[in-house]
Amino acid sequence: MSYPEWKTGMTTPTIGVFDSGFGGLTVLRALVARLPGARFAFLGDTARLPYGSKSRRTIARYAVQSAQFLVREQGAEFLVIACNTASALALDAIQDAVPVPVLGVIEPGAEAARAASRTGDVLVIATGATVESHAYAAACRARGLRALEMACPLLVPLVEEGWTGPLVAAGADTEASAAQAASAPPQVAVTAEVIRIYLAELISEAAAQGMNPDTLVLGCTHYPLLRPLLERVLACVVPAGIRVIDSAEAAAEAAALLFILQDTKKHSPTVQVPTAQIRCFATDSVEKFERLGSRFLNQPTGKVELIDLGG
Ligand code: DGL
Fold first, then answer.
1. How far apart, in whole angstroms, are the C-alpha atoms of residue 55 and residue 53?
2. Which of 83, 140, 152, 280 is catalytic?
3. 107-248: same fold as 5-104+249-306?
4. Over 50: is that where the pLDDT of 9 sits?
5. pTM
6. What's the rounded Cα separation, in Å, for the pair 64 and 55?
7. Phi, psi (5° rounding) for residue 61?
8. Which numbered atom of ligand 1 lies nearest the CA of 86?
């Protein structure tokens, strides 16, 4: 991939962030925290969600169209693929299709797992397509880790419905988390039970394979919204404790470092705008995006612009 000269005279380049839905807003939230003065264009391909149950060919076609929109029409000069499924199955296709640096979430997630794991055994939960690609297993193997992956196809729809439960992490006895748990809508019990079933199966499979996992990678950008609930359930299923790695945080950390490096090379120095400027685009359901997106982003999304990428 060639990295073109960044436009001179443009003080703050736009960072394009893309996901199949609004789960990728968890990556954007983490990016904004690290690059508070940057400009961001976020695209959620909500009309074609979920990617996680589709073929590599289809995912690559959708992801390339989305990346091209951010680069060609929004002038993004750096792309973060805030979707594990697109990163696992279409990163090469996207890199070939756009003339800007592109970062996916899988490698940073695996790197964070390597840093966290003492036993070298790692669990990964993700969409069906991500698991079938074994992208995490390969990235973990390259770092000397053993990974056991499990598809959790029910979790994305539960997150998209907002059945995510308390937002305060376990450590469960704080007043805030107790209050949130008490006021959690009854639907959250459904999500907790789904999580418990997936995790129990994963832990039992790991035991059957003689693994001693100490780290769980959230290999889908929707899952950070479930993190407090996941950690509560994990504490019951694995009393010894398992460290949770958020691939969204890991990717944002890697992207911020890479971006600052690139930016320093091309602009001297970058003049930052006072607060992050965020424009959000979606291919469908802009009202739902605005309503639920603020939960993911931890601030209002602003007016979401509807775009058409074709079929
Ligand atoms: N956010 C996507 C991911 O990280 C999952 C949603 C989908 O299936 O499109 O894999």
1. 7
2. 83
3. yes
4. no
5. 0.86
6. 14
7. -65, -45
8. 10
